[in-house]
Write the structure tokens for this entry.
Amino acid sequence: MEITATIDQIIGEFENFDDWMDKYNYLIEMGKSLPLIEDKHKTESNLIVGCQSRVWLHSSYAGGKISFTADSDAVITKGIVFLLIRVFSGHTPSEIIDAQTEFIDRIGLREHLSPTRSNGLVSMIKQIKLYALAYKTQESLD
Amino acid sequence: MYDKLTSGAIRKDFPILGRQVYGKPLIYFDNAATTQKPHQVIDAISKYYYGDNANVHRGVHYLSQQATNDFESVRKQIAGFINARYDREIIFTKGTTDSINLVAATFGKIIVNEGDEIVISAMEHHANIVPWQILCEEKKAHLRVIPISDTGDLDLEAYVGFINNKKTRLVAITHVSNTLGTINPVKEIVAMAHSKGIPVLLDGAQSVSHMPVDVQDIDCDFYCFSGHKLFGPMGIGVLYGKEELLNRMPPYQFGGEMIDQVTFEKTTFNEIPYKFEAGTPNVADVIGLGAAITYINEIGLENIRKWEDELLNYATSELKKAGGLTFFGEAKHKASVISFLIDGIHPYDAGTILDHMGIAVRTGTHCTQPLMDHFGISGTIRASLAFYNTKDEIDGLINGVEQVKKMFR
């Protein structure tokens, strides 16, 4: 599915909820489906900086597409990471680099966007895009 | 007056306490991060800009004379508030962090040399760690860290061991821990250091709003605190220093106000306190700080301490009754700060849910990462109470904690 289509689907899912508690419960549920990072990849270098919770992100590249696995010690963060992985995993570096991410705001999770030290959402998106840039550069050098 | 605290009537003075967040009444339990301001403080700052604003110490015109008088009377008021000997021992800074940096950069510069030691503790805020750490790196000196017990008390035996080795040049300790609430026995700590000829700096950021502080009685050499943790504005703080030490210290920043004579060949410096107050001061916020202290004195710090103790005891016992919580910092003498974790639940998850219920607590390391490492945790949930909080609000927190447990278990 195209990135924009996935984003629209996610926005649609969240629009079902009026109550913030239901929204968070859904996010918590989603976190359970997170494609988990292998223990051997839970290293310092895979830790996202700028998170009050610990978030590990690992990427692999095959057939021109990037896939991500992750984990976090905070449940809400797991849900948010899963959202990002749903959107970005299985796409080409260019698609990821060009993708817009204000959908997080549109599903009403704006507080997770604020650039405070506590939330690594901004850092996670940055890291995902950095991976994409790195693979794209590698591609053009090969 | 005490009734005004127990009944919550005092809250009427604080405009922000009447507001809602996410459509729910605000329960503000983040006072250790910053306190809310009574309208008397807000009005004083506005009044200054509406009708009294002028630069100080420089003019002969009416407004500047008045602004200077008002500014200097707050200095005098603060000297009285902490019982300093002289007004000139009160230096206005940007806050506690600025005050500590000032001492590290000036006093630290002249007294610390290669091989010397500076003693701090494991419960310090980064503001009372990093300046000393950097000073030690620059001077090839060593930082000694007093360990703490599981209850969050300082290991005084270890402290005595450190200061007995003849290498300690300074002790820098917090009066009250922002994370654990521990009230340290500062008078004894100072006396022990002085018996070895070692000066002591105390970080008073978390103490001045909870209890009377008498710097002569404590006999500390430096005492630092921030206006914004004392129901005053941000951007203003105080460094108290004993006159003899302040006179020995070189200036921190240079420019106008802190000079005596300036020529291109040579410049001489002003006397204290002005030697350490370069540039136009933050006059409006000094006025605001004065208004905050006047307000606090009208309530009475003894009343504040009594009510906060009651709130602390209520909150602690109710939280313990709720069950499934681990507490950090259970010293015998505590200020109204409670750090805890809900077992099996990450503080970030808990804090996010509590936030949506209108409850403002702080989660994370509270600028005390070494302390978190000591307990082997990534962070805590911290509820820090002030005299305008109520038992109903504490009930709200308990309800929030139960909600969090439901959502994540």
